[in-house]
Transcriptional regulator, LysR family (Methylorubrum extorquens), 314 residues
Amino acid sequence: MPMAWDEFRLVQAIADRGALAPAAAHLGINPSTAFRRLAAVEAELGARLFERHRSGYVPTPAGEAMAAAAARMEEEVARFDREVADRAQTPSGLLRVTAAATLVTDFLMPILGRFRARYRQVQIELVTSEEALNLSRRDADVALRATHDPPPNLVGRRLGTIAWAVYGPAREDADGETDSGDADWVSPSEAVAGGLFARFVAARAGPERVALRLNSVQGLCEAIVEGVGIGPLPCYRGDRLASLRRLSGPEPELAGSLWLLTHPDLRHAARVRAFMDHVAAEVAPLRPVLEGRQGDDPSSRVSARLEAVPGTPS
């Protein structure tokens, strides 16, 4: 009897994650069910698919072959989905979009709202993730990412530059200036952006002055507002808050490019094309905000509110 597709997916999930619990969570089943199903598959095949070690599940040659077959099957299914989607002429259906949390809360949500008002037949599934999802496997259809090196297997548009600067709370000392000379710092950890931000902070403050490290950029703003320390923030976030004060100009070494990316097989799909055109048109007038030019004059901070940007014409 041919092996069911679900059993191939189970073996692939365990091989990819190295353990039963995360594989079961990915598939939406409980670990005991995953354990029983794996035992049944191995019994049916008459071969062990994984070696059980303290460190996790390591695929045997048979397990590697089955996981590789599952990956090929998954790619064929994804390719079929893309071909079907490409035939649709009217923007409609489900659109999976992924972006980092800071881009979602401060930047993307108003744009999504205006896109949805314009294209009522498109339903959006937003995946907030700091890691790049696999667009080839349809984990997402479109990705909004800040990166210098977009993956070569994707296509898209460079929307602009995201500037970063150093910010502190807006409280002033007796001279009316914020004193950052001996201030504590908050810093993204080495795990964020390959350690780019951690190296930036380390070059300006000793380890004893780093009061807080975070494994994402999402909590940086809150920490700075609460007075935990000063630190780097994207200018589109820092310049819009009256509770923050910019302490430096845009730092060239922290600047990143904002990209809108999709899989080549999806670029002509009506819903994807409509979304990418819409986002590009909306971002164009926001470039001064993204590049930190709104914050050069502190009095212009309030004018940098992203919600105030009008929608694109129909």
